[in-house]
Design a protein that fits this description.
The chain is of the alpha/beta class and 191 residues long. Helix content is 32%, strand content 18%.
């Protein structure tokens, strides 16, 4: 019988849409920190992105699921979609800590969210429950007390949405299955 995992990476976000930059850095972090696996946690409503509504939760769920299909060491969690109101990281982390009390949790945060980290709900408790890891697609190091995974990957969800709205290809920016699904669902065309 398998025991509890020793180390889990938690990667929360709206993933609107998920793209290869997310996947590359998550894979790098898994290898660097020797994580048992990385869980992609889809936010229903990000409390820090209330100004722009994302694609529907169901569409984003389908996109993340398609991107992770067959990816060893990556798992998907849509539990935040079943909660009312904004998705707060602390609620999800508490649930993981209850489920895996002896497991070391690593919480991935994009370098574009570092400045607002201290505004997160119950941040002091959160800092006690997880080891934050900064994922930097800019490729430039930050001088923070958190470990960092850095790789220059110039892909962003905003750029992808804008390209789709202009009728341009996003091939090679998102996994092939995700690109196909975006086309089938017709999302982001009117952004």
């Amino acid at each position: 019988m398998n025991s509890q995992p020793k180390k889990i990476g938690l990667y929360g976000g709206t993933f609107d849409p998920i793209h290869n930059g997310h996947l590359i850095l998550a894979r790098d972090a898994r290898e660097l920190f020797q994580l048992d696996y990385v869980v992609f946690i889809l936010a229903k409503i990000s409390p820090h992105k209330l100004g722009r509504p994302p694609a529907t939760a169901e569409h984003r769920r389908q996109l993340v699921h398609s991107a992770l299909e067959g990816e060893e060491g990556f798992q998907f969690d849509d539990s935040e979609l079943h909660r009312a109101g904004p998705s707060f990281t602390i609620d999800t982390v508490r649930a993981y800590k209850e489920r895996f009390p002896e497991t070391q949790l690593y919480y991935f945060i994009g370098d574009d969210n570092v400045d607002e980290l201290d505004t997160w709900k119950d941040i002091e408790e959160l800092k006690q429950l997880v080891q934050f890891v900064i994922l930097s697609r800019a490729g430039t190091p930050f001088f923070l007390s958190y470990p960092m995974v850095t790789r220059r990957v110039e892909i962003s969800s905003t750029e992808i949405r804008n390209r789709i709205a202009r009728g341009q290809s996003v091939r090679y920016m998102v996994p092939h299955s995700t690109c196909t699904l975006i086309e089938q669902l017709g999302i982001y065309r009117n952004d």
